[in-house]
């Protein structure tokens, strides 16, 4: 009797909860509204519970990412079987971001990112940011130069920004045919966004590519870092307070010991030597504002014997001395619903180059102020607006040693820019970004408006399609403007389509692009290169290609590897080119594999880079056709190993790396003598690395 | 008349108290279930329970807090990186919701710090970014309530797992863990359904620090 009473007052409810396609939902919640009576679904989507409630009640079914469902039922004690189908809320998959054009750091999509440690442990990079980026598709290996060459673009078409501000001289100064390196250590940055095209309207003055670096936030604690390498040594002292921090570092490199042991192809007069100082500070201000200060100074000298290029055998001395300072001050804070960021950057660079026949002294001062304001109005709409003023002063003194011929070049430019960018999500799977950038360079005395638009469509949870169109303007370089300031902007248009598949720490990206160049500066070589009469904006060109990138950190335990392939078909007529040809920096096929295996047992990481690219065009003056010759393929295997251990109770990294393990004689191109030999033939010398292999040992110790 | 008002008041009070105790009872029961949950399925059913309570008690932050707490613990059992991230995404939503209804900031920030530690488990390559994020939000948690032992304990754990060269190691972790221990002892007698977890794990951190062990995540 009692039992039957109970069964009358309690109602058992069970059933199944599934999505619209009938797939069972695991962990969905069902309950009687206003009570705690309910249950979650099991692995089959089944649920079952009893309720003490009676009469008309409302049942609620909820599951994250699905629309809440309510149903009125009569609880009478009679067993109820209720099945539900839930509708997906589309805006739950609003994770869509524009993925075309850039290799970006973000919290979640880690697989496309190069973290500071990734850069340090890429064998072929030898600790250089640009060296590591060269392993990504779209960037070409140009062994004798070292700068970034993106998608058939010249080195000057890529710019580097730190915390939103321009770095005028991001590369160390170099002597001819020897590769340059980035001035800054990868450990200074917590994020890198490497845009291989179609970058945001917030940045300008780069025809091909923008590298956007974000400096580290607050250091965690007071400590001393020491590094001892076969090529130099360094020390950094960091003080970390609650609301402020300070880091002071010094590094000194001298290649004398290394070069006197390892045979060099280049005859050095003065082995490269450099001194660098750095200062970093972070200050927290009221209202979660942060001030970042970053300042560096470096001085470097080197000297070598280089062919005179007039006739075979003759060598001349080339001496280089460079001083560079860079300061970047940045302030970020949230004001009501806006995020404000403002900053200034200052570059001073002094480059003294002495050759047998002449001296060239370049002095460059660059100042930039930049601000941006971002606001998210809703999940569907956000806005980014801002402006920028750049002052560029360039001075060159050229003097011939055997005559009184002098030349003084001056370039003074004030570049003002404003930009605004709107991001709209009309549908949850679709995001559209539209931006405008207005720019005016005083040296050109003309304004331009650049358009940047992009859109991304999330096809399914793992597959995304993006498209970009953008126009880009760049003021000609000082090396041209010093002869003829009355020139117009060079222009590029980018068309990009990208398909990205990401699942389970595996990522595949395929990106196709078309880049159209107009108004390249060109001049006629029949006349002196310094004659302004023959300079104009009549050059043009284009690049088309496909970039493929695959990264996998899942399949093999503790192995992280990426594979890059790019196909570039690029032609241009610019500078002194008599016809439209493939430039020497654009090899057709580029293939790179980078792998890193961490072995926990011996706390050691082993890394390998395999790089192959097809031959590069070069011009042979003995041939009647311009730039019709192609070098042999480039091939390099580099290895490294990093071991973590304790030395005298201090945590230590032991590091060793070797480039070009197989000692392949890679030839980057040929230099021809300016006068033919007795039989009327122009002789040449090949351009190679300064040594077959580069071996580096290092010891990094942290004291606390 | 007066009597009726008083009676009504008494009834309302009784109902409120009843509701209060029912709520507390439901939370406490769920916490007991959580203690005995040994499988992901059992933990998921505890999450569902807390989420049901949260739906019935729309002004209470505790059920959301515990739902997120259970989800974070669940993510530690999961081996697939994508699934870990998916569970932590749900936990993050629960934390945000709890903050939006004026939940205890110090506790919720601390839990978010714990969540970031869960993100590191997906890929050691994330260590740098997420230990930094964890450190930042744990600082905020301490600022909100310096008496809360959990952010200090989590901070100690964070430092313990960070390589020495980035400012981690047992030597640096120990002072924080000891400070947390003192605060945990003060908290012992406290009643109610507020968060009280962490004391035992904190002792384990202290032991590990004293043995000068270190597990390095790069």
Polypeptide structure, described:
The complex is a heterodimer of chains A (704) and B (218). Chain A has 704 residues and is mostly beta strands. Helices cover 4% and strands 57% of the residues of chain A. Chain A starts with a helix and ends with a strand. The N terminus of chain A is likely disordered. Chain B has 218 residues and is mainly α. Chain B folds into 2 domains: 67 residues; 113 residues, Serine Threonine Protein Phosphatase 5, Tetratricopeptide repeat (Alpha Horseshoe). Chain B has 9 helices and no strands. Chain B is globular and about 75 Å long. In chain B, 46% of the residues are buried. Chains A and B meet through strand 3, helix 2 and strand 38 of A and helix 2, helix 4 and helix 6 of B.
In short:
The complex is a heterodimer of chains A (704) and B (218). Chain A is mainly beta.
């Amino acid at each position: 009797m009692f039992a039957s009473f109970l069964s009358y007052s309690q109602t058992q409810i069970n059933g199944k909860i599934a999505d619209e396609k009938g797939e069972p939902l695991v962990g969905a919640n069902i309950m009687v509204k206003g009570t705690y009576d309910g249950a979650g679904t099991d692995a089959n989507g089944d649920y079952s519970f009893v309720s003490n409630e009676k009469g008309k009640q409302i049942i609620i079914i909820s599951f994250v990412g699905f629309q809440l469902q309510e149903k009125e039922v009569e609880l009478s004690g009679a067993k109820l079987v209720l099945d539900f189908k839930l509708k997906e809320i589309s805006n739950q998959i609003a994770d869509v971001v524009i993925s075309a054009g850039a290799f970006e750091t973000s919290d979640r999509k880690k697989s496309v990112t190069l973290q500071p440690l990734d850069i340090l442990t890429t064998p072929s990079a030898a600790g250089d940011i640009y060296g590591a980026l060269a392993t990504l598709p779209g960037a070409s290996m140009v062994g004798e130069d070292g700068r970034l060459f993106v998608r058939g673009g010249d080195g000057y078409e890529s710019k580097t920004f730190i915390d939103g501000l321009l770095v005028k001289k991001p590369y160390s100064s170099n002597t001819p045919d020897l590769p340059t390196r980035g001035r800054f250590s990868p450990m200074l940055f917590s994020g890198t966004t490497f845009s291989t095209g179609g970058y945001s309207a917030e940045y300008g003055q780069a025809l091909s590519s923008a590298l956007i670096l974000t400096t580290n936030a607050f250091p965690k604690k007071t400590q001393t870092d020491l590094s001892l390498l076969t090529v130099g040594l360094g020390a950094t002292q960091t003080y970390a307070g609650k609301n402020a921090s300070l880091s002071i570092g010094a590094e000194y490199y001298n290649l004398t010991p290394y070069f006197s042991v390892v045979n060099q192809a280049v005859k050095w007069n003065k082995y490269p030597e450099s001194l660098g100082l750095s200062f970093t500070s972070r200050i927290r201000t009221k209202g979660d504002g942060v001030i970042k200060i970053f300042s560096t100074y470096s001085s470097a000298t080197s000297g070598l014997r280089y062919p005179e290029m007039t006739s075979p055998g003759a060598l001349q001395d080339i001496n280089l001395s460079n001083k560079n300072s860079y300061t970047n001050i940045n302030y970020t804070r949230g004001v009501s619903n806006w995020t404000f960021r403002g900053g200034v950057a200052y570059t001073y660079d002094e480059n003294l180059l002495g050759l047998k026949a002449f001296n060239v002294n370049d002095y460059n001062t660059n100042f930039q102020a930049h601000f941006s304001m971002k606001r998210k109005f809703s999940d569907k709409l956000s806005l980014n607006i801002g402006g920028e003023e750049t002052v560029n002063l360039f001075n060159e003194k050229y003097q011939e040693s055997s005559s009184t011929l002098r030349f003084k070049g001056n370039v003074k430019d004030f570049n003002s820019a404003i930009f605004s960018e709107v991001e709209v999500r009309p549908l949850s799977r679709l995001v559209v970004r539209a931006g405008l950038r207005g720019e005016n360079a005083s040296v050109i005395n003309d304004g331009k408006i650049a358009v940047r638009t992009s859109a991304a469509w999330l096809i399914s949870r793992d597959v995304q399609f993006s498209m970009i169109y953008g126009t880009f303007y760049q003021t000609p370089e000082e090396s041209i403007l010093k002869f003829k300031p009355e020139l117009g902007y060079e222009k590029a248009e980018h068309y990009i389509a990208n398909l990205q598949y990401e699942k389970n720490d595996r990522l595949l990206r395929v990106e196709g692009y078309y880049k159209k160049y107009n108004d390249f500066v060109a001049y006629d070589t029949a006349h002196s290169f310094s004659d302004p009469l023959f300079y104009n904006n009549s050059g043009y060109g284009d690049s088309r290609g496909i970039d493929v990138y695959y990264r996998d950190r899942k399949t093999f335990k503790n192995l992280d590897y990426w594979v890059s392939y790019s196909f570039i078909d690029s032609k241009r007529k610019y500078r002194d080119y008599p016809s439209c040809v493939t430039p020497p920096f654009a090899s057709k096929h580029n293939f790179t594999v980078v792998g890193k295996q961490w072995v926990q047992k011996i706390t050691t990481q082993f890394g390998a880079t395999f790089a192959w690219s097809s031959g590069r065009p070069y011009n042979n003056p003995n041939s009647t056709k311009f730039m019709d010759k192609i070098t042999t393929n480039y091939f390099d295997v580099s290895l490294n190993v990093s071991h973590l251990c304790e030395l005298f109770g201090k945590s230590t990294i032991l590091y060793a790396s070797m480039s070009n393990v197989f000692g392949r004689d890679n030839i980057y191109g040929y230099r021809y003598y300016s006068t033919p030999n007795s039989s009327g033939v122009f002789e040449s010398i090949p351009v190679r690395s300064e040594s077959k292999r580069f071996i580096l040992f290092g010891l990094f110790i942290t004291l606390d | 008349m007066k009597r009726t008002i008083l009676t009504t008041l008494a009834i309302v009070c009784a109902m409120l108290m009843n509701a209060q105790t029912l709520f507390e009872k439901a939370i406490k029961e769920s916490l007991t279930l959580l203690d005995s949950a040994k499988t992901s399925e059992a933990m998921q059913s505890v999450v569902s329970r807390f989420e049901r309570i949260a739906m019935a008690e729309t002004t209470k932050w505790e059920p959301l807090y515990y739902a997120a707490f259970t989800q974070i613990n669940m993510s530690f059992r999961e081996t697939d990186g994508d699934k870990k991230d998916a569970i932590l995404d749900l936990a993050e939503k629960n934390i945000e919701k709890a903050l939006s209804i004026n939940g205890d900031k110090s506790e919720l920030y601390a839990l978010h710090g714990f969540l970031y530690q869960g993100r590191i488990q997906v890929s050691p390559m994330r260590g740098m970014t997420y230990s930094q994020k964890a450190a930042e939000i744990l600082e905020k948690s301490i600022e909100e309530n310096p008496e809360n032992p959990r952010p200090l304990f989590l901070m100690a754990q964070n430092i313990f797992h960070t390589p020495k060269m980035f400012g981690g190691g047992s030597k640096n972790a120990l002072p924080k863990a000891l400070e947390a221990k003192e605060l945990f002892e003060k908290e012992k007698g406290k009643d109610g359904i507020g968060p009280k977890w962490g004391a035992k794990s904190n002792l384990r951190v202290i032991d590990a620090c004293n043995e000068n062990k270190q597990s390095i995540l790069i």
